[in-house]
Amino acid sequence: MSQIRAVKLEVINTGTELLLGNTLNTHGAWFGRELFKLGLRISRQTTVPDGDAIRDSLQEALGRADAVIVTGGLGPTSDDLTREITAEVLGLELITDEAALRSLEGFFALRGRPMVDANLKQALCPVGADILPNANGTAPGIYVPPRLNGRSNCAVFLLPGPPRELYPMYHAEVVPRLRALAGVEKLHQALVLKFTGIGESDFHQGIDARLAEVPGLEYGYCAHIGEVDLRLIGDEEALEKGRKITLERFGSYLISDDESSLEATVVRLLKERGMSFATAESCTGGLVANRITNVPGASEVFTHGFVTYANAAKTGMLGVSAQDIETHGAVSEVVARAMADGALEKSGADIAVSVTGIAGPGGGSEEKPVGTGWIAVAVRGGQTEAFSVFHPRNRKDFKLAVSQAALEAVRRRLKARLS
Amino acid sequence: MSQIRAVKLEVINTGTELLLGNTLNTHGAWFGRELFKLGLRISRQTTVPDGDAIRDSLQEALGRADAVIVTGGLGPTSDDLTREITAEVLGLELITDEAALRSLEGFFALRGRPMVDANLKQALCPVGADILPNANGTAPGIYVPPRLNGRSNCAVFLLPGPPRELYPMYHAEVVPRLRALAGVEKLHQALVLKFTGIGESDFHQGIDARLAEVPGLEYGYCAHIGEVDLRLIGDEEALEKGRKITLERFGSYLISDDESSLEATVVRLLKERGMSFATAESCTGGLVANRITNVPGASEVFTHGFVTYANAAKTGMLGVSAQDIETHGAVSEVVARAMADGALEKSGADIAVSVTGIAGPGGGSEEKPVGTGWIAVAVRGGQTEAFSVFHPRNRKDFKLAVSQAALEAVRRRLKARLS
């Protein structure tokens, strides 16, 4: 991004639990994605235990970086030393911030809990630094601008560790200050396009060269099972060009342009079309229904889920012919179609998807190896369509990949219906 | 652990994708848990981009630590510089290791793929260092013992980044060398006890003081939604004492002592008792069935899953009385019991669990707020038992907490049946 001056940025996460493996450090990846949207990259991320260990790593980072973001260690316990050590390292005195103290008192009063003395230190702030209000916890953040830093020209952010406190504070308080530091007052924008049905290499071969030619556009891919997210950043014009290049080529594989998941997109399309939905699952064992019901408001459109793991369940719950299972096998086009049709009939829903396959590790054969699956989509008053998939992966990844293919088949059918 | 000399250990993860947030860094937590089993703790973890950035962080770590583990950057591309930079920093010459070269040639021959020149550098090794064989990829690991290190007394491990290559190499090659470094030839053992139905604070109040008194025992907790894992390490005697103290107090809440999940434990108990299993889910939307079918071999015991999201599904699929739903509400003891009984009857299974609740964000009332749920367990030839739960959390966490309570209810019923 030619408009953004290079800012060397480091992240330090404090927390013994992160190093013991009790808690997965998701901050690193989260900061990476968020900072990418501002055109910034992390040059180094460090995790240190609670307590005094922050001292060395902070001192080193101050000598290298233009900005350091520290998370954790702002709580009331004796192990929470980030505030104290930062002030010491920067040679700044800590004083009680009256507004922060009143806010703390208000936090406890609202909850009818007594404020203990240990909390008092949470209102301490290096002289001249900014208090960053915390609407979701007791620990305010702190911003020390470069001009206060006697040791180097580095800005320092101290932020709380819990995501529900960290994320809102980052967006409200850190982003504008980082923008100013980076010399970008004008808002840069980010766009996330989610795709399914194609792989990252399709993008490399298909559009990489053209995206690279768009002035001021940065882009990156993030591949998951059955999904590739393309992230674009730049000004409005660059984003629009990037979007156009991408969608001309891969538009039919687009899940969403607003970070919505595939299941949320399916629920939205069902609502828009006023259609109800049912699932009939064998190998995915309820995963498709589970994903759909993760979406708030799914109950408006999702009514019945048939998890027909045993053959007796396929016949009993969905009316699949035992003879068909005997003749074609439970993993077959005939049975997938009969499951989708049966789900439609038994539920009275407007659209139904069925999944049958071999998740492994057992149950495979030469003709139908582990990873084989059939998916069918039945629509009230329409043709039932079926297709096979092959995902020779471990059991959980197979289930995820097949559930993705099933939801994508529903999305396509809904798009085709009224678009 | 008094027997283990304190080893200062640092982990450096290389990978631009980790800092961009494209990939979650799971290595930190994984190493933390694995090293804990050896009585070792990570004193600092650092993530740096691919390429030259490893140089500074390695140099700094060599000055601080007794052992440094580096992951990533051992591949064949121009960005993969870990091997070269480490040799340079340590002042060691790189030479081709003939055994590693033959192993590489074998890897490609086996797969019928040509070996390109870029792969040749993967057979390079600092003079005198150990090549760590990689059964699952092209990049062998490297171990530089302290005696070769001219700069400090620090041991260096270079390991591949992908978990399927890293994990086996760690266990086969790194663990024995770390044991030797730490002066512990005798195998220390680790024990993981998984519990549900009680919280971490119950352990603190109940047994912390007694565990702390066991000589040579280290312990730590890892809390998830609806689950607390207690990790013990020490010699056989210490472990046995720790286990006894814990189980005397909390034995009835034990899920497993072999790291098996709750769902895997339920599947095992079902198999042992020769019982088949069905689920009837409303608010969890298929999550209970999904978790059960994540377990390999679940098809031997799990037959039917009824995801009755709409009231019409509860009546149509399970025979719940529409009048009961009208009178008591879908989230009620009466409906939960009728769902479990219906699942048993319609499936012919030996045991069935039902779940009905309000996941939110909508649908709550003063009498039944978001987070309210009812669970029932029906057993062929036995009484149906029901109980209520309250988990006012976000939608996904609510589903997870309630599915955990449902599976735990099944586990208890199975344990009571034949133990």
Sequence stretches where pLDDT stays below 50 over 5 or more residues of chain A: none
Q: At the third CATH level, what is the topology name of the largest domain in chain A?
A: Molybdenum Cofactor Biosythetic Enzyme, Chain A
Number of domains of chain A: 3
Rounded to the nearest angstrom, the distance between the terminal CA atoms of chain A is: 36 Å
- Could you tell me the radius of gyration of chain A in angstroms? 27 Å
Name the average pLDDT of chain A.
90
Category by helix and strand content of chain A:
alpha/beta
The dominant shape of chain A is elongated
What is the CATH class name of the largest domain in chain A? Alpha Beta
**CATH superfamily caption of the largest domain in chain A:** MoaB/Mog-like domain
Specify which chain pair forms the largest interface: A-B, 74 and 74 residues
Strand order of the largest sheet of chain A: 2-1-3-8-7-6
| Assembly annotation | homodimer
Largest sheet of chain A: 6 strands, mixed
**Number of distinct helices of chain A:** 15
Portion in helices of chain A: 25-40%
What share of residues are in beta strands of chain A? 15-25%
**How many strands appear in the DSSP assignment of chain A?**
17
CATH-scheme architecture of the largest domain in chain A = 3-Layer(aba) Sandwich
